[in-house]
Amino acid sequence: xxxxxxxxxxxxRFNYILPFAKKHQFDEKGKADFVKQILRTYKDVGVVKSxxxxxxxxxxxxxxxxxxxxxxxxxxLYSLDIHKxxxxxxxxxxxxTLDYDRIIHGSFDALCEKAMFIDxxxxxxxxxxxxxxxxxxxxxxxxxxxxxxQWFKTMLSTPAQHFDEALQRLLFFNQILWQTRHRLNGxxxxxxSLADVYENDIKAGxxxxxxxxxxxxxxxxxxxxxPSYKSDALEGDIGQIIILGGLTPDGSYFHNSLTELFLKxxxxxxxxxxxxxxxxxxxxPAELMKLAVECLRSATGSPLFxxxxxxxxxxxxxxxxAEDAYNYCVSAxxxxxxxxxxxxxxxxAVFDYDGVLQEILKNGREYKSLHELVDEYNRLAQKRFKxxxxxxxxxxxxxxPFVSLFTDDCTEQRKDISDGGAMYNNYGITTVGIAxxxxxxxxxxxxxFEDRKLTxxxxxxxxxxxxxxxxxxxxxxxxxxxxxxxxxxxxxxxxITDAMASVAKGFKNKLGGTVKFGLxxxxxxxxxxxSGADFSGRKAGMPYNTHISSSDAAYTxxxxxxxxxxxKGQRFNGNVVDFFVSPSLIRDNADKFITFMMAAxxxxxxxxxxxxxxxxxxxxxxxxxxxxxxxxxRVWGFSAYFNELPESxxxxxxxxxxxxxxxx
Length: 664
Description:
48% helix; GRE; PFL_dom; Gly_radical
């Protein structure tokens, strides 16, 4: 059998094409060079007979084969081979955070020994994973200087003793995740996990705060390497999120020196990723909010804010134990996630609210009242959501003995995380289009039921013609209601999500979990491209409304709107208020903006992110990209370089910046 035939038959094992080739538009020479790289690497790795092949054996082969490249300017060792990765059949766990605390305050060898105690399939896979990680550790150690060799010598066998050592461990296990195709993985609550080793080093006089800041900056610079390899849907969509701060079960607010150091280092790196995520509360000190606002001025899109006063209550209402609810992290963007206990895949698929309304409006039926129409909408939305969830549950998950070792209950049950071994096995759904539905329904109430400007038949005709010949009605339809502190808009939003929540509560997936959903999604500018016109004034193919936002409502009004939405009943899978803020507004009104942010927490928003950017800069950057090579913008749950975005995203960002400036 030729080597090319072996590659074709065995491509699942080392799938170079999925994470690498599709990101590059190769010319003929590039294609030829790429094929040579596959052939060379495949020969280096060798072929394992299919009967002997397991996930563990393939990871072991990969760890032996990857090339190691070291940044000599860094205090840390961190390496990825962008031409090689692991590809097991099925969907690999992603959009999650590994429980790094287990290798900071425990040892990897102990995790493996516990799993290997029984000689079954689970134990044998754990043994192979142990050998694979040791192989990579030994290979990295050979590349290190004396200090790095000391770190790697005890990397797998004992708890970390010092702050710099703990940071190196995070980087090592992080690189293994990326090398094995675990996309969009976060870092967890680092100010909490690293607190004791940091404080012990400070007390012992072997670490200063200034030195710690240098190390954190170096750590984050290391994580920012290999952005093209790590990016998912768009360049910059990486998901290395660091969680900071947070409410504690006794009602006090946790933060420490590391909270501040990570915020400062993130702003100083001036990179889209890694990003910071600050858990906020009305109990937090105003000084920490002041620092967070200062970091926003660095225009990296970080930190993102999550309101513990609302999020934790939603988790408790879901039935989650207080220990887990108060210790929540998030997935790659913002969806709450319990580290070390969850399989939860929180960005599995996107449900389109607007598509359901378009389906109804095309049926030609005349409705007697808004109440009748909303009832019809909710009935069809529930039906479509049930069908949608049935399809989602058909996904097959890849075996993952590596992540299973880090997850509660997997070893105890001798069950891989892909088979439901984790404590929590829920699915997470994101949604788009609800703002367009709400605006459409309010317009129907006003222009059809109250003013009698048109019939449902005429409405269907108008939308089919994409508003051509109906310019006056288009102008009326463009008035926004979602995001405004209006009783009808708020009521409609909650009625629709109530109907969806009733479906979610009754859903059980094949792993025994349920489903969570939210009102934020990265697909607002993707699904909409195939969507027809709607009665919110949106023409066919134009973007849906972005998260929880409004193009013509003041910041305070959007926050008030968000604070009156219902997040209970499994509606907590990401609900993000999204703002554009002019840099001059924060610069000239810093104290007022901090006061606004603290008041917004009391209003009860769920989560919040913002772009601190003006339209003039974005317009000039689009016209003269060479002048703005380092310009960073917030896209959805991640930040990216403006120049690397598709034109449609650039245009949308400019449009939103202009709208924000008109509001004032």
